[in-house]
Amino acid sequence: MPSAPASRRQDGETELSPPEQAWPALRQAVDPFGMLSTPWRAQLAWWTHPQDLLQQANESWREALALYEHGVQRLLGVQPDDPVAPKTEDERFADPIWLESAGFDLLKEGFLSLDHRLRTLNYQAPGLSPHEQQQAHFWVHNWLNAIAPSNFFWTNPSAIQRALETSGQSLQAGWANWLRDLKAGKLLMVEPDAFQVGRDLGTTPGQVIWRNRLLELIHYAPATEQVRALPLVICTPWINKFYILDLNEHKSLVRHLTEQGFSVFITSWKNPGAELQDLGFDDYLQEGLGEAVRVVREFCGVPQVHLVGYCIGGTLAATYMAWANRHYPAEQMPVAHWTLLTTLTDFAEPGEIGVFIDEDSLRTLDQLMARQGYLDGEAMALSFRLLRSNSLIWHYWVHSYLLGEPLPAFNVLFWNMDTTRMPRAMHAFYLREMYLKNRLVQPDALTLAGETIDLDRITQPLYAVSAQDDHIAPWQSCYKIRESVNLAAPVRFVLSTSGHIMGIVNPPVSPPKRAYWVGEPRRNDSSEQWLAQSPKQDGSWWQDWTAWLHARTGEWVPAYPAASAQFPALGPAPGQYVLEK
């Protein structure tokens, strides 16, 4: 039965019919993230656009005929090209056995054809907003990933072959792995005891020289007799533990910086519980980064520092820079120049994480955080795993349970599972004001710590790094910092190959594994224009950055000790906060 039409109120606003009024409440109660409702609305949208639906039906018919022809050729012993070839990064069907068997090849191609058609239908659904299309595509894609034939024993030829080769030992090991994960309450990517922070990870020598309820400030021991006078303050993301920048002696950005003659300080954030639920973004600005900058200036006896911000730590650094340029006279500005690493300041196009950002989703998170006092790290980790469900969920499902393989001892995966909590007030503000309303790039739209925030007040030189395959902070969105800071601010922008983590944890190696583009964009240059005119260089951007830093961080001075009389050692690095679960 059709719903009653909407009517027009006297004030000119549209008055929704009772069914239309009930829909948002129903979705909020049953499906706040649109897992079922947005794909359903996409289906309904096609039925209300019959001409577009007919065109899609014709496309589906052509694909079905191509699949039928492929099947006939396989049955005749011919090896034709795949109608829908798996993407190069899709390892689910990489085993040659999927091609050797005509039956499994047809199963694979039938699934890939269905996957391609349904994802296209949802992503192009007429009459839906771009956000609704993105949600529908995202959830259909995840449902399809879950039912892929590679995820089930009897439809995975690799698993069957492994079971035969091992006389069933792989199935026995897979069952043991299943019980292990059942006990852990989650699908593990690495054994919980594979590494120990302070022994295997976060091993660069240093001392905690200052601590408050929000952070510990670590100063790394100098690796050279002399250092540059201007110290570096690294503001790490509190969405993860800081030691991603100090994994081991071969993959440590902080160790590299100390070896290059810089005095390095880093933030290690408190893993907050319900008792800190009222911590806000203001507190992270003042008690967190603001205090870290103050302490480092006093410790080294210098008027200014170089500030580095990574991910959400970079968003805080950008906010601090705008705040400080408003709060201090120009001659007292505590930061001389700064660096951003894969940082969003303009959230208009936040990438795939945007699928979780709308009023219904945030309202649900608000209610959850109000009960707990924080957002649990496991819940946040699951949302990021869903963004790459094939590689971060189903890969481990197949290899652990169907193939019976042990978990790899990979330090980045260990760090990824070493989750942290988000304080209720801070996280609600960050998601709503930054992501949903995009107020950081709106001049004076935010007031923090008593000052209005306008990125255009920032005139200090900036070195900004983004990553080509970053799905958390898309590089084109990171690039928009050039449009936001003042025209007088010199900007050097870098695009590294790889993603959000490995694009940053990118030590120089021989032969080079990665590459980067680097150049100074003009304010009106689009990201495409900048990329077209910027040279690509093999190797790590670390070397370009350290050369840029050496030119700006002052004279060589005797190395600052790891701790001092004014700021005595409170304990060795990596400190206490990073060990909190």
TrEMBL record:
It comes from the Bacteria. Residues 1-22 are annotated as: Disordered. Keywords: Acyltransferase, Hydrolase, Transferase. Residues 89-256 form the Poly-beta-hydroxybutyrate polymerase N-terminal domain. SUPFAM superfamilies: alpha/beta-Hydrolases. The keyword Protein biosynthesis does not apply. One of its GO terms (biological process) is poly-hydroxybutyrate biosynthetic process. Gene3D superfamilies: alpha/beta hydrolase. GO terms for molecular function: acyltransferase activity; hydrolase activity. InterPro entries: AB_hydrolase_fold, PHA/PHB_synthase, PhaC_N. This is Alpha/beta hydrolase. The lineage of its organism: Bacteria, Pseudomonadati, Pseudomonadota, Betaproteobacteria, Burkholderiales.
